[in-house]
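Here's my example:
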Amino acid sequence: MPVNMLQTLFLTSSNTSAVTLLTLDDVKNWIRNKGSIGFDYIIKIIIAIIAFFIVKAILKRLINLIQTRMDKRGLDKMVTHFVLNLVKYVILIFTFVTIITKLHLVEAASIAALVASAGVGVSLAMQGALSNFAGGVLLLMMRPFKIGDYIVVPSSNVEGMVEAIEMYYTTIRTIANEVIKIPNSQLTNNAVTNRSGNNKRALVVKIDVAYDNDIDKAKQIFSDVISNEEMVDQNTKSIFIDEFGDSGISLGAFMMVPVSSYLAVKRSINEKLLNEYRKEGIVIPFNQLDVHIIKED
C-alpha cells in the first residue's frame, strides 16, 4: 500500500463526501501524551507497592521490639497482644493513606470528601465492629478475666479456657478442644462466669436409688467412691438426699475440684459409683409405670 495512503484516515458517510477526521500525526501525539500519563501512573503504583512492603517489614521489626520490651516489664499477655494489634493496624492504615496522597494517586481533598460523605454509612455498617472494639478496650481495662482463665458464657452457651483477647474477638478453647471466637461485645454486655477465681470449681454429682434400698449404705458407698478421688478437696465433700422422685430417691454429692479436672473427676465418679452399686446390690431405678387391671364381674 502506498505511503501517502497511510497519512490520512477517512470516514465515509451516506450523507456527506469523504472527510479527513484523523491524521497519523494526531494518533502519534495522542499516544505520546496519554501514554506518558499512563506510564507515570503505573510507575506510581509500583512505587506505592514497594513503599508499603518496606514499611510493613520495618513495622514487623518494630512490633517485635515493642513485644520484647513489654515482655521484659512483665505485662500481661492480654495487654501485650491488644496493644501490638492496635499499633500494627493504625500504622498500616496511616501508611496506606499517606502513600496514595503523596504520590497523588488520590488527592487528599477527595479522601476527605469521601470520608465525610460516607461517615454516616460507615458508622452504621461498622456499628458491630466498633462495639466489639470498644468491648476489647473494656476487657483490657476492667480485666474480668485473663488469658488462661476458665470462663462460662451462658448467653453463647460456651465455656472453656481463654486463649487470646484480640481487638474484636476473644478466643476460647472448649473442653472438646474446639476453638471458638466470641465477639467482645457479647462478653461485656452479658454475664460471664470466671471459674478460675480460686482455681477450683464446685462439682455436684447425682444418682437415683430405689426406695427399697438401704439408703445409709448407698450414701456410704457414695462417700467412699469420692474419698478415693485424689483431685477432690475432701474437706468440702457432702453427701445428701436431693429429692424424692417418682421411681426412686435422688442422692447428691457436693465437692470442690480443680477447674482443669472438672470433667475427668465427674466421669470417674459416675463410672466407679455405677460399678460399686452393682457390686453391692444397690438398685438404680428407671422410669416405669405399673398398670393394674381390675376385672368387673
Observations:
- The first helix runs from residue 24 to 72.
